[in-house]
Amino acid sequence: MSASIFKQSNVITCRAMVAWGAGQELVMEEVEVSPPHPLEIRIKVVCTSLCRSDITAWESQAIFPRIFGHEAAGIVESVGEGVTEFVEGDHVLTVFTGECGTCRHCQSDKSNMCQVLGLERRGLMHSDQKTRFSIKGKPVFHYCAVSSFSEYTVVHSGCAVKVSSFVPLDKICLLSCGVAAGLGAAWNVADISPGSTVVIFGLGTVGLSVAQGAKLRGASRIIGIDTNPEKCEKAKAFGVTEFLNPNDCNEPIQQVIKRITDGGTDYSFECIGDTGMITTALQSCCDGWGLTITLGVPKVKPEVAAHYGLFLTGRTLRGSLFGGWKPKTDLPSLVDKYINKEIQIDDFITHNLPFEDINKAFSLMREGKCLRCVIHMPR
Q1: CA–CA separation, 276 vs 5, rounded Å?
Q2: Where does the Alcohol dehydrogenase-like C-terminal domain lie (predicted)?
Q3: Residue 163's beta-bridge partner residues?
Q4: Which of 49, 139, 199, 336 could form a disulfide with 223 if both were Cys (CB 3.0 to 4.6 A apart)?
């Protein structure tokens, strides 16, 4: 298929990897991308990473055809009416949950749940509940307000963060979701204290980012739990001090953790996306002040069930969306930390693939053979 891109009446025709049905291999298609509407920007995607939540939605959600992808970086191609923050040529990170700056939640220091640009669930733009993608006049739906598996995409200006043109986009794109989510869960939501004990269920990019954040906060013991033995050595590089595989244990993993930590850890993190594991995580932290943070996106059974006694004895369960970061306010500081070598990102990138190999990235992640695959768009 031709990789040429042209403008006609300010509509761009470009290539995108389109999902036509749940679990079906993505197909390279020519799509029309509308010009940005008021307060929107159109972005030339430079690189995008595959996140586990893309796969979860691709396997289970009913909104198709759809363009997935949300962990991305690119260059502003054009801006819509009323946009003053961005100009053509700006380098940006995309974010799946925005920051309008004026709603009750954006004005509060207790929340990052923007009431205007929060989670997009129906595959439509926030402003007018329509799409900006089409194929031969028929709509193609968005995902997470970004849809970065396309050479060009349109996002609300509140769902993009300006970065320096000197920052490597193929690295910091991971701050659009996974790495930032894990670090924020450790720093903002749990507020891990020095000398504390931590257990992390699931050692993908998010779980290992939690480990990195816990290490930087001075946690004395960071226990990583995963059924993939290949995660062991990689986890130690991010701060995990002990690795446990539940399949190798003769007793329930929560009992193992309580036994080796004298009653449970100070903090536990559920990074799998399995609501059944939330109870296990709760049981793994200590009475009195044990805090469990859940970050995973469940594939099935979204309801959480736990015995009231776990809470009566002083444990707390908290959810974490994007690590509590206000994206436009806080992401620039994380970019600075990367540039200053205060946090690591590069080691999360296990594969670099061309745009046409996105389906290979899906296979690698589903088989547990990667952390992050960065997809490079044609120049």
Answers
A1: 47
A2: 206-334
A3: 91
A4: 199
Distance CA 153, CA 94 (A): 10
Whether the pLDDT of residue 8 is over 90: the answer is no
Query: Residue 298: CB partners within 8 Å, gap ≥ 6?
Result: 56, 273, 274, 275
The alpha-helical segments, DSSP class H, found in 164-242 are 169-172, 178-184, 205-216, 231-237
Q: How buried is residue 193: exposed, middle or buried, by Cβ count under 10 Å (0-12/13-18/19+)? A: exposed
In the beta sheet, which residues pair with residue 374?
A: 49, 352
Q: Each residue of 171-215: pLDDT tens digit?
A: 999 999 999 999 999 999 999 999 999 999 999 999 999 999 999
For residue 366, the surrounding DSSP H or E stretch is helix 358-366
Flag whether pLDDT at 145 surpasses 60. Answer: yes
CATH of the domain spanning 6-176+345-376, picked from 2.60.120.560, 3.40.50.720, 3.90.180.10, 3.30.360.10: 3.90.180.10
What is the amino acid identity at position 174? Answer: L
- 48 backbone dihedrals φ, ψ, rounded to 5°: -150, 145
Closest alpha carbon to 314 in 276, 354, 263: 263
* Tokens read off for 146: 């970004």
Span of 73-87, 165-179, 294-308, 324-338 with lowest mean pLDDT: 294-308
The answer on pLDDT for 299 being more than 90 is no
179-322: CATH, from 3.40.640.10, 3.40.720.10, 3.40.50.720, 2.40.50.100: 3.40.50.720
The predicted structure's pLDDT at residue 2: 38
